[in-house]
Amino acid sequence: MNAPLRKVAIAVLVLFTLLIVNVNVIQVVRADGLRDNERNTRRISDQYNRERGAIVVAGNEIASSVPSAPDDPLRYTRTYAQGPLYAPVTGYQSILGTAEGLEEAEDAVLNGDDDRLFGRRVADLFTGRDPSGGNVELTLDPAVQQAAMEGLDGVTGAVVALDPATGAVLALASTPTYDPNRLSVHDPDAVRAYDSEITPEEGSGAVDPRSNQATDERNHPGSIFKVVVSAAALAGGDYTPDTVIAAPRDYVLPGTTTDLQNFGNEACDPSGQQRLIDALTISCNTAFAQLGIDLGEDRVREMAAAFGIDDETLDMPLEVAGSTLGTFEGDAQLGQSSIGQSSVQLTPMQAAMIASAVANDGSLMKPFLVDSIQAPDLSVIDQTDPEEMSQPVSAEVAEQLTTMMRSVVDNGTGRRARIDGVQVAGKTGTAETGTDAPDHNWFIGFAPADDPTIAVAVFVKNGGGTGGDTSAPIARAVLEARLGQGN
Amino acid sequence: MAGLTSAAGTDPNAAPVGTGPTPKRRNTELLLLGFAVLLTMAAQCIVDLTLTDALRPELATFGIWFSALWLVAHLVVRRFAPYADPLLLPCIAMLSGLGLVMIHRLDIAGNTLGRNNSGEDAPVQLLWATVGLALFIAVLVVVRDHRVLARFAYTLALVGLVLLAIPAVLPNSEINGAKLWIRVAGFSIQPGEFAKICLIVFFAAYLVDKRDVLALASRRVAGLELPRGRDLGPVLLAWVASILVLVFERDLGSSLLLFGIFVVMLYVATERASWLVIGLLLFSGGAYVAYQAFSHVRVRVDTWLDPFAYADTGGYQMVQSLFSLGTGGLFGAGLGGGRPDQVPVAKSDFIAAAIGEELGLFGLVALIVLYLVLVERGLRTSLVVRDGFGKLLAAGLAFALAWQVFVVLGGVTGLLPLTGLTTPFVAYGGSSLVANFGLIALLVRISDAARRPSAPPAAPVAKLTEAPTEVVGP
User: Fold this and answer.
1) Nearest to B372 among A16, A32, A43 (CB)
2) B118 has pLDDT over 80
3) pLDDT digits (tens, 9 = 90+) for A257-284
C-alpha cells in the first residue's frame, strides 16, 4: 500500500501548493485592487476614524472634520463651510468611496499618509497621540471667489482668476454648483439620493455640477484666441500694433468655398484693411483668419504651445485637462483656428493663463492652488514657491499686447469690463458651438493694466449673447473684488 | 520501496530493516510545545495591548490553563505512547493557540463595536479544548493497540451513520441553511465531525478485509483495470450516502469530504488508479445533477465563479473575505490592527481570512504549512506502520485532515465553492475541536506503534552496551 500512499502524499503537497499560490495571488497580485475596492469598507472606516486635515482659505476652514454624533460608528464627519461656494475647489469625499476635487487630489496630505508627514506619524506612534491629517492652505481670495460665483449665478460656466506675478489661483469657480455636505453624510442612502438628484438625465443636455467647468471642460475659445495669434505676429518682429493688415468683408478660405464672415456680417473697415490693434479692438474675423494663414501653422502653433496650449494636462494640484489646437488639415483650418474655432479647445484655466502671461511682462507663471501644507499643529511643512512655466513673449511684445487689449476694453467689444479709474485690458470671445446650441461667451483680461494684480478668464457655456455682453460684466465684478481691497 | 511494501505484512512485530533503536524524541516535543505556548501567549499580549491598551488579569489564567493543557497532553503521551511522532502535538498546539488568539481578538472587536455583542467565545473554546484533551487522553488510555479498533468496525459504522443521520431527522437543526447540528442542553453539536472518524475506522477495517477482491478481480477496458460490477457496491454505497447527506442536510462540505476520503482510501487499499477515475466520474455526475437540482448548490457555485456580481447578496461573505485577505497583503495589518470583524462569521467559517488580514500572506502561508507538516507526519506514520489496518487508518485520518483543510481554505480564498466545513483546530466550534483531538489521538497511537522498536530488543546490541568496560592494566 506504500506506493499509492506516496502518491497521496504528493497529491496533498500539490493541493496545498495550489492553496499557497492562490493566497499569493489574492494577497499580493490582487491586494491593491481589493484594498482600494469601493466596497471595501475598511478603507473608509479607517479614514473616518482619524481626524482628516482641513482645507483652509484665508485662515478659515472651508472643509474640516468634526466629531460625529455619539451614536455614529464613524468618529468624524466631513463638513464644508460655505459648501456650494467652494465646491469646485474642495470637491467632496463620500462614504461610498468616491471623492473629487482637492479631497481627492490632496488625499494623502489630508489623511496623513503623505511622505512629508512621515516624521510626524512616527512621533504619533511613540507619543500615543491620535493620528490626524495635514492641512492644506489655499491661495484663494474669498472676495474674488465670492464675486466669481455670484457672477455665474444662473448660468453654466466658469471663472478662473490668477495672480499674474506668481500664478496663485485667486478664484476657481464653476457652475452649476452643489452642496458637498450632502455627499459627505454617513447615510449611504442619503448620499445616493443626492447623487441621483444632481446627476443629469442622459440626453437632457444638463450638466453634472461635479464636472468642473474651469478645469475639466474644454470648449472653443472663439476670439480670445486672437490674442495668441497677435502675440505670434508681434513676436516675429515683422508686425507692430500699427501694421496695416487685410480686413475684407468676406474671406473665402483657401482651397474651399467656405465664406468666412465677420460678426453680424459687417465690414471691419470700409477700406478693406486696418491696423492690427483695430482688428483686435473690433475682433475682426477675416483679418485674423488671413493673418494666421500668413504667419503659417508653425508660428501659431509654437506661440500657442508657449502659452501652455500643448495637449498636456496640468497639475495644480487639481488636474487641468490639456488644451489643444487639434490638427490642421491645410490653410482653411488654420484660418478658422486663428479665430478660435475649428479644432481649438481651451479650458477656462488655460484662457486665464494667456491673460496672466501678457499681464506679467510675457512670463507665464505656473498656476498653483495650494499655498502651503501644514502639520496638524499648523506648522508649515511645505510651501509652494512660484515657478515660471514659460516666457511666451518678450516684455516689449507683452507691452504691445497690453496696449491692444486696453483698446478692446476702452474702444471695442470689451466696453462692459471698464472700471472707473482703473485701466483694464481684455479680449472678448463669442464661440460658435458648431451645433444649434447657443454660442459660448468668453472674456479674458487683467487689471490694473500698467501693474496687474489679477488676471481673469470668464466662460459662460451656451450663454447665447456675446462675450462682451455676457462675460465682460462678470469679469469686471471679479476684477473689482480684487482691486477693491487695495491690492 | 519494494522492501517496505513487502515488509508491511501482518506481523506487527517485524522490525523495520536497517534501523537502530528509535529515539523517542519526547524532549523535542516538550520543547516545541513550549515554543507554541510561548508564541500563543505573545500573540495574546499583542492583541490585548493593541485593542485595549492593557493586559487583563484573565491573561494569566489563560496562560496557566493553556500551558497545563499541553503539559498534561505531553505527559500522557510520554506515559502511554512514548514512541509517538513528536511533531503531532506541537502542530495542533500552535494551531489551536492561534485559533484562540483570533477568537479572543474577534470577541473584543464584537464587544467594543457593540454590534453583534456575541460575548466571550474564546473561554468557551478553551473549555472545548479541555474537553478535547479529555477525549485525547481517553483514547490513548483505552486504546492501547489501534488494531483493537478493527474489531468494532461494523459497530462504529453504525454509530457513524446514525450520527450522520441525526440532524436530518431531528427538527430545529438548521443553521445557516445547512442541517448539521443537534442541540443538547444548550450546546449545538455537529455530530458529523464524529461520524467522520467512525466512518474512517470502518473504511480502514472493511477495505483491509476486502482489498484483495477489490484489487484483483478486474477487467481491462481501455487501458484501465476496471473492477467487476458487483465489486462496485461499496463505492456506490458511499456515493449514495454522500448524496443523501447533500440532499437531506444540504451540506456540500461533509458530502464532498466523506466521498473524497472514501475514494482515496479505496485507492490506497487496492493500489488501483481506476477507483480514482470511477470516483471522479461519480463525483462529477453527482455534482452536475446537484447543480441542476438544488438552488443552494447553484448559488454556491455562481457566487464562487463571480463573487463580485453577487456582492450584496450570496457573494457578500466571499467578497468580504477577499477584502480581508487583500487588505492584509504581504505582512498583514498586525494583530488587532485590521478589521476582520467585517467578515461575517469570522470566528468560525472565515477565521482563515481573519488570520490572513492580520498576519498577512506570511501568516496564512505559515498556517497552511503547519497543516501540511501535520498531514505529512500522518502520512509518514501510515508509510512506516507495519499492519495494513493501521496503515489505512492513518492514511485515512491524515488525508481527511488534508482534504478538509484544502476544501475549507480553498473555499475561503475563492479557489473552490464555499462549504460549511470548519478549519480544524483553529475555527470556533466545540464539536470540530473535540473530534479533531480524537483524530490526532488515533494518529498518535498509530505513530507510537509505527516507531516503537520491535520487542524483544535486539539482544546482541544490548549485551554489548551492557558489557563492563574492560580495564586494560598497565
Assistant:
1) A16
2) no
3) 888 888 777 888 889 899 999 999 999 9
Q: How many CB atoms lie within 10 A of CB B367?
A: 25
Task: Report the alpha-carbon distance of residue B291 to residue B284 in Å, rounded.
Answer: 10
Identify the domain containing residue B56 by its residue range.
23-452
Count CB neighbours of A185 within 10 A. Answer: 16
Q: Give the residues across from A138 on adjacent strands.
A: A57, A370
Q: Which of B5, B269, B327 sits opposite A3 (nearest CB)?
A: B5
* Contact assessment for residue B204 and residue B177, using Cβ atoms and an 8 Å cutoff: no
Residue closest to A195 by CA, chosen among A100, A63, A105: A100
Residue B463 maps to a domain = no
Q: Count up the domains in chain B and report the number.
A: 1
Cis before A317? omega within 30: yes
Residue B462 covered by a domain: no
> CA A237 to CA B405: how far, in whole Å?
82
Residue pair A23/B364 in contact by the 8 Å Cβ criterion: yes
Tell me the whole-structure pTM to 2 decimals: 0.64
- What SS3 state is found at A70? coil
Residue A247: give the domain boundaries.
Answer: 222-369+388-483
The single residue listed with the C-alpha cell 487639434 is: A326
Sequential DSSP letters for B83-95:
TS-TTHHHHHHHH
Kindly give the pairing relationship between strand B187-189 and strand B182-184.
antiparallel
Rounded CA-CA distance A44/A445 in Å is 43
At B52, is the pLDDT very low, low, confident or very high (cuts 50, 70, 90)? Answer: confident
Instruction: Tell me the three cell numbers of residue A203.
Output: 440626453
Cα distance from A180 to chain B (closest Cα, Å)? Answer: 27
Counting the structural domains of chain A, the total is 1
A29 touches B at CB < 8 Å? no
In a domain, A419, yes or no: yes
Q: Where are the beta strands (DSSP E) in A340-475?
A: 364-365, 370-374, 380-383, 388-390, 425-431, 440-447, 454-460
Domain containing residue A357: CATH number: 3.40.710.10
- Would you say residue B464 lies in a domain? no
Does the residue B299 lie in any domain?
A: yes
Q: Going along B21-168, which residue ranges are E strands?
A: none
Instruction: Give the gap in angstroms from C-alpha B150 to the nearest C-alpha of chain A.
Output: 18
Nearest CA to CA, how far is B373 from chain A (Å)? 10
Cell of B199: 466512518
Kindly tell me if the per-residue pLDDT of A486 is higher than 80.
Answer: no
A353 part of a folded domain: yes
3-state secondary structure A252-283: ECCCCCCEEECHHHCCCCCCCEEEHHHHHHCC
Reading the block at residue A384, the C-alpha cell is 509652494
Nearest 5°: the CA angle A335, A339, A343 is 75
User: Quick check: A418 pLDDT over 90?
Assistant: yes
Candidates B113, B331, B365, B403: best to mutate against A (most CBs of A within 10 A) is: B365
Helices then strands, each counted (H, E), chain A: 17, 19
| B329 with A24: Cβ contact below 8 A | no
Residue A124 lies in a domain: no
A45 touches chain B (CB under 8 A): yes
Which residues of B are less than 8 Å from A23 in CB distance? Answer: 325, 356, 361, 364-365, 368, 413
Mutate to test the interface with A, among B313, B327, B381, B421 (most CBs of A within 10 A): B327
ipTM above 0.90, yes or no: no
DSSP A370: E
Give first-to-last CA distance, chain A, whole Å: 95
Phi, psi of A368 (to 5 degrees): -145, 140
Residue A406 falls inside a structural domain: yes
State how far the Cα of B181 lies from the Cα of B140, in Å rounded to an integer.
28
pLDDT of residue A167 exceeding 70:
yes
User: Could you tell me which residue, A366 or B109, shows the higher pLDDT?
Assistant: A366
Residues A343, A324 contacting (CB under 8 angstroms):
yes
Q: Which residues pair with B175 in a beta bridge?
A: B178
